[in-house]
Design goal:
single chain, 131 residues, mainly beta, 6-stranded antiparallel β-sheet, two-stranded antiparallel ribbon, 0% helix, elongated
Length: 131
């Protein structure tokens, strides 16, 4: 499409896992390096790829996320998290900029328990290889 300069598609990540440090609860004797959030989920959304010159590719995408998470001995779920991403690729080298936003309710999947929503907004810069 558009003389191979502009392409459209679906960005689908079937298994995504990540973790991050957290701020300890007030009154806790733990350090920030001892408290973690663990996530696993999926991401899907539209993708636009721009190929301005040679093998330089710029990917722009918006994805909806579904995550399950564990933190402080509680399970949580987020069905409609969101991500805005930009990849800059040249041959096999890739630099990514990702902005994820949403909230997870850590109530052990039990609606009778009180809500404990935590903002999981992150900005990530990644360097890697894409084959």
């Amino acid at each position: 499409m558009a003389n191979n300069i502009l392409r459209f598609g679906i960005d689908a990540i079937f298994l995504d896992g990540w973790f991050a440090t957290a701020t300890p609860l007030p009154g806790s004797d733990k350090k920030a390096s001892e408290v973690w959030y663990y996530f696993v989920g999926q991401k899907f959304g539209p993708l636009i790829t721009i190929n301005p010159v040679d093998r330089l590719m710029i990917d722009l995408s918006y994805k909806l996320n579904a995550n399950i998470s564990w933190h402080n001995n509680d399970w949580g779920a987020e069905i409609l998290g969101q991500e805005i991403m930009m990849n800059i690729r040249y041959r096999v080298i890739v630099v990514s900029f990702m902005y994820n936003f949403g909230k997870i309710n850590y109530n052990d999947f039990d609606s009778s328990r009180p809500e404990h929503k935590v903002d999981i907004t992150t900005f990530r810069v990644l360097l890697g290889f894409k084959f």
